[in-house]
Amino acid sequence: MQKRIKYRGTDLVYSDLGEGACIVLLHGYLERGKIWQSFIEHFNGEFRFIIPDLPGHGDSGSWDTVHTMDKVAGAVHAILEAEGTGKVFLAGHSMGGYVTIAFADLFPEKLSGYALVHSTPFADTKEKRDNRDREISLVLRGKKRQIVMVNIPKAFATQNLDRMSRQVERLKHMALICPDDGIIALLNGMKERPDRSKVLQNPELPLLLIGGMKDNYIPVEVFDKLVALAPHARVLRLEESGHMGFMEEPGRVARALVDMLNTI
Hints:
By secondary structure, the chain is α/β, with parallel strands linked by helices. The protein has one domain: Alpha/Beta hydrolase fold, catalytic domain (Rossmann fold, 3-Layer(aba) Sandwich). The protein is built from 10 helices and 8 strands. The protein has helices at 69-83, 95-106, 126-140, 144-154, 165-176, 180-192, 197-200, 220-229, 245-248, 250-263; strands spanning 2-7, 10-17, 22-26, 48-52, 88-93, 111-117, 207-212, 234-238.
């Protein structure tokens, strides 16, 4: 069921599906909630899923030229308050992971645990900030397509591009219809986010780290650094995945989440 609430004067749109322990899935940059559609089929109706379009993407609106990760986490919190969910398990992919770690910092009492799916708590390097500025410039010049045609194929392991050509094209379409103002607001927000490594080190909050061993955006050595920061965390290394493990190896990711939830 699709629902909506008002937040900061704009619409927040989200799906509310199934019954049971609640899992909240947060999509990444140039994505929308529908990206999780085929992934949740691996759970056999065992859980309740709340899946937002994050502000500025999908059907959710924008409120400013900068959507900080803290304010986006606040939007997710507003949805959970409206639903009266109690504690949830939060899993965020890529940019959604930045929102997840912000949420874990700001609202830990709302979580039974969380997962970073191809994501990190680290602030942007200068190189990454410069690249986000370059993408903002391209969007402002009407060249969003150039970003999409590079970023989307790069998100998959090279060996999976032929096998997953239909999914790649679907993601390209999804990215191309992202509103320009939302893309810019989220790029600005990602660029400004602080380092939240200390949040990751909290042993009181169950944590699952998922990384692709063929990820073009998060190299293996960065994922290893992440794992070293949180010795209490469960770790899933996806040997055949790039940056889109929940699409490239969905069964393994779903099983890891179910196993995690069964121990909480």
